[in-house]
Sequence to fold (258 residues):
Amino acid sequence: MTDLRVDRDGGVLRLTIDREDKRNALSGEVMRGMLRELTGVGADDETRVVVITGAGDRVFCSGADLGVMTNDATGLEQHQGRGLLRDVILAMRACPRPVIARVQGLTLAGGVGLVLGCDVALASSAAEFGLPEVNLGLWPFMVSALLARHVSPKHAMHLMLSAERVDAETAFRMGLVSAVRPAESFDADVEAYVAKLAAAPPVAVRLGKAAWQTVEEATLAPALEAMQAQLSLLTTTRDAAEGVAAFFDKRPPNYTGR
Fold:
């Protein structure tokens, strides 16, 4: 694997798009590697958090590699290749661990889709975001499916029609990212946040993430019924009992993932 750097340390799986000379564009190799790693997390008891980022300081991800659109592949093959981004985003949602975007720099086109597909996106104050497809005679069709779930219709259409870039604070106000941290302390801030998530009770996180997605996609009555069932299920676990016991004992909990 050369386009995607994979590192595991202390319960954290880090996936780094390692194509700095290509502005960390999404190649087929990158997306297939992400898909393989994300789908493998469910069978990995050690991993507690997944972090996705880009190599270097300047670009998180510039979107799909446009060279793919001009190669010798047939239209059908190109269509199937574009489905890789869909598969990666769905794998992020299905991943039983939190998936965090570490957005350290410029983020464009499909890179914005990658950020929106993550559970949490932490952005450096130096980051910028944009959907430039319209300037190329294209449209961010796949990104728009995610955009509609995170920002207002007016903000979404502005981004897609104008192709203007917005800074990190504007992206935060729109709902594109979860939080913005100063560029000078960004690495330390992200590591502290990731360490906190890695120490969270894994069963509660797994059930909670799945439950949240159920809430997102359901009307109120079925959502409340599903949440009642999930709460009852979680309270049967040893982690839940340990968390409550630790609270009353005034000590740190020792979660085992059971």
Notes: Strands lie at 4-9, 12-17, 49-54, 59-61, 99-103, 106-108, 120-124, 128-130, 166-167, 179-181. The longest helix spans residues 75-94.
